[in-house]
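Re: Re: ligand-bound prediction request (bumping)

Still looking for help on this. To restate: I need the protein modeled with S-adenosylmethionine bound, output as structure tokens. Inputs repeated here so nobody has to scroll up.
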Amino acid sequence: MTEVSRFYSGSGGLVEAISSALDAAGLDREALRPVDLAPVDEFHIRGRAATLEIIEALGLSANSHVLDLGSGLGGPARTLAEVTGCTVTGVDLTSEFCEVATALSEWTGVSDRTRFHVGDATDTSLPDGAVDAALTVHVAMNIPDKAALYAEAFRVLEPGGRFVAYDVLQGEGGDVKYPVPWANDSSTSFLATPEDMRELLHEAGFEVISEVDSSDESLVWFQQMRARIERDGPPPVTFSAFLGDAFGQMAANQVANLAERRIRTVMFACSRPL
Ligand SMILES: C[S@@+](CC[C@H](N)C(=O)[O-])C[C@H]1O[C@@H](n2cnc3c(N)ncnc32)[C@H](O)[C@@H]1O
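Reply:
Sorry for the wait, this slipped through. Here it is.
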């Protein structure tokens, strides 16, 4: 197991932990929808709202076959499949996350349109031009060889296909305060700057169609999450299911990192030229 997978795997038993938490909250498993799981499986800043923006940027239809590089617990993949009817293949380094993603898709009735494989986003072994759209959401922070990541996204995408990279970038405010939800310290955290990203995507062969910095909205999202939890208590399952008690400190650090401009959240929409 790599250091990165070890960080995300926690103490194991995640399928059972999520299952028990849903049962304890009295959620009817038969009626469970992808949206009900968003507080735990849309594992990125601004959650489902950001995934809906990605759907727009990718221009998906029910015929699309999409690759999610670093698919985590599969929340973005399920949202894509639920909203557009498309088919999504997810690849993730953390085998327990792939196991959970597969179970959650079964529970929410989208297992015919989502599948998850253990693998490295920089080398997926998929054929050239295998998909007509691709995304990566809050994954590149853990990947030092970003050129390999974007070259792989380009390779598996058919000409004319769209690619969205929504990631946490290094801001101008100084070093990141750790721990954060992707790393305990700088040994597994590798943030690109917005300038690096433009160059990396261009070097991979992509044409960048749009670049949207959502850092202000990200700060509001964390503040609203905190206020909601203080008012209503936490949702049945949250990121604490796998990040443990450290998630509270991580969320507080993210508020500081955003407020002090140590990090930025930016979405790049690209196309592979014909
Ligand atoms: C913060 S989570 C984001 C998960 C998902 N994209 C989402 O937004 O819900 C980061 C994910 O990246 C995965 N990851 C990190 N490095 C990876 C790599 N080289 N290849 C594939 N997955 C990777 C981790 O296992 C983890 O599931």
